[in-house]
Amino acid sequence: MDLSSRTCRCETPDRELFVVHVYRSQCRPEGGTAGYCHRNVSTILLRLGRTMDLQTPRASVHSRDPGHLAGIDRCCGCNERVSAIRFLYWLERRLYSGARQIVTLGDGYKAQLIKRGVEPERISVIPNGVDLDFFSPREPSYNFRHEFGLDGRFVCAYVGTIGMASGLDIVLRASELLLEEGRTDICFLLVGDGASRTELERKIADRGLTNVVMTGMLSKDRMPEVISNADACLVHLIRRELFQSVIPSKIFEASAMGKPVILGVAGLAASLVADADSGICIEPENEAQLIVAVKKLADDPAAAESFGANGQKLVSWYYNYDLLADEYLKRLEECLDVA
Q1: What pLDDT, on the 0 to 100 scale, is given for residue 235?
Q2: Structural domains in the chain, sorted by start
């Protein structure tokens, strides 16, 4: 384990410390729509089950989603999936029970683990955060705005996966109503790719929504440029109980660059934004509330600036990657101390 570089590696023969990162990725099955694919989780756990002595105490399991195995039966090409699911649930429980410390991204995940019988004292919460060196305030770029036809307009940007969970039909419904009101000074910028992109592009063209611009996939290096050219950032997920415990990292990236957030995510994320006064919270999938929020920010620049400044304070104090990395190191060192 190299503490100086904040990297954890398992290289010792006795494997006293092993950190398991469990992630959930989005894939598009051949010939179908996008869905959550847990092949990577399966691969990690199956290899652990085959190669490691599970009775040896492990130091840390980083769980991004305690329910990550629930959707494995939706993966394409998963043979004998029922047996695989049962085995993976069993292996998941063994990993949790054998870990000295479990790190989750939020209190909602911690609550789920406690319900599964994990002792609260073995669970730490280290949330997502943001790289303040990469996502830092900067002046808008005339070239970017000109490239996508955004000159002279108030831009509300959505940056991320354009998938079914994003529920971006709300943007199209809101845009239609704004055009009917004559608010051509407001436009929505949708940046990214995903299962819903083609369908959204078709609807935009069919309805003549000149106030919605889709850029397609842009490189990660351009994300600060994208956000700097937005006047507000939309963070939205469809209305599902599952998302009540989710805090999208888009909030931190927008806030780090001083942009007000329009948040259409219920639960913990809404509490965070409301408590920090870093944006406007709306009900998911409610286009009427989205219209009110975007008009408020477009018509009141001082309020938008205040929300953005509050967001910057929030992330610099609590969601700075450097601070979070130090906290993670403390947890790992505590595991080594009791080894």
Answers
A1: 98
A2: 19-129+320-337 (3.40.50), 142-318 (3.40.50.2000)
